[in-house]
Amino acid sequence: MGTMDDEERGRAQGSVELVAGDPAVIRVSGALDLVLAPELERLVARTPGERLVVDLTDVDFLASAGMSALVRAHRERQALRVVATGRVVLRPLEITRLVDELDVYPTVAEAVAGR
Question: One GO molecular function term (predicted)?
Answer without folding.
Answer: anti-sigma factor antagonist activity
